[in-house]
Specification:
Length: 280
């Protein structure tokens, strides 16, 4: 497994991708566009070349799951619904020409769903009460559930299908885009310590998972928002030191903080976040 560089504007380092493919002989490429970005023309050109050479291209759309953009050179699209909606499991797999197993042939992962539902409930209780014990139990249940999800492919549970059936996709898309735009427009005047990776809103082509911003003291800013009841996650843990392929990638991991813009919130909550930014 070879990791590819990412630029500070969260675009792909296409020269590094080409090097990994042609020099390191990687034959499959897994891409994960960030926070509503879609592939740039330069990225499309390089990936098209790799595909023409026989390379397998997989696009993880989890951070821009509502994008309807499709590419001839992409073999598979995957995405997680759990990051977007209050459901214990669920995602999608789309193939460009390949045959996929029928959903009817797959079974629901009952132990996984049961543990995740309990973990979700306890996590919600923790957010309401601040009881750290509930958080610890929720984390343990989540880890146990994850250990039960690796043995096979399962269909999405009936519980999650029911939740998803009640989702207003258009409203979800619109609210997230509006929330993102409001934070983007007001952030620069509200906060001197936070910078957006994006030079323009035009780079955000589809509904984003979070609003990303660079801050120098991530832990301090994260703690400040948590004290106001706003959980701002970091990008994700560095499980493999090899992922830090450049100083730029290291900076992203150390300084990128994510602000929630999901469909539970609106203009009032975004203004509250902006007001808190002014206190930083």
């Amino acid at each position: 497994m070879v990791f590819v560089g990412v630029n500070l504007d969260l675009s792909l380092d296409v020269e590094d991708l080409a090097r990994c493919y042609w020099v390191e002989a990687a034959r499959a490429v897994v891409l994960h566009p960030f926070y509503g970005r879609e592939l740039s023309q330069e990225e499309e050109e390089v990936l098209s070349q790799l595909s023409a050479d026989g390379g397998l291209v997989i696009l993880d759309m989890t951070q821009g799951i509502f994008s309807d953009k499709r590419y001839d050179f992409v073999d598979y699209y995957v995405g997680s619904l759990r990051k977007w909606f209050p459901m214990p499991d669920g995602g999608y797999l789309e193939a460009n020409g390949a045959l996929l197993p029928s959903v009817e042939e797959l079974k629901e992962n009952v132990p996984f769903v049961s543990d995740q539902r309990d973990a979700m409930y306890l996590r919600g209780q923790y957010f309401r009460s601040g009881d750290a014990g509930l958080k610890c139990i929720s984390v343990r249940l989540n880890k146990r559930a994850e250990g039960q999800s690796l043995d096979d492919i399962h269909r999405m549970s009936d519980f999650s299908l029911g939740v998803f059936a009640g989702v207003d996709i258009d409203a979800t898309y619109r609210v997230r885009m509006d929330n993102f735009a409001q934070l983007f427009e007001l952030r620069s005047s509200a906060c001197r310590v936070a910078r957006s990776p994006f030079a323009s809103l035009d780079l955000v082509a589809t509904s984003p998972l979070y609003f990303p911003m660079y801050v120098e003291d991530v832990l301090s800013v994260q703690s400040f928002f948590a004290g106001e009841g706003i959980y701002c996650p970091r990008l994700w843990p560095v499980d493999y030191p090899e992922v830090l392929v450049s100083d730029g990638v290291r900076y992203i991991y150390e300084h990128l903080l994510c602000v929630p813009v999901d469909q539970r919130y609106g203009a009032v909550e975004m203004q509250q976040i902006v007001n808190l930014m002014r206190e930083l």
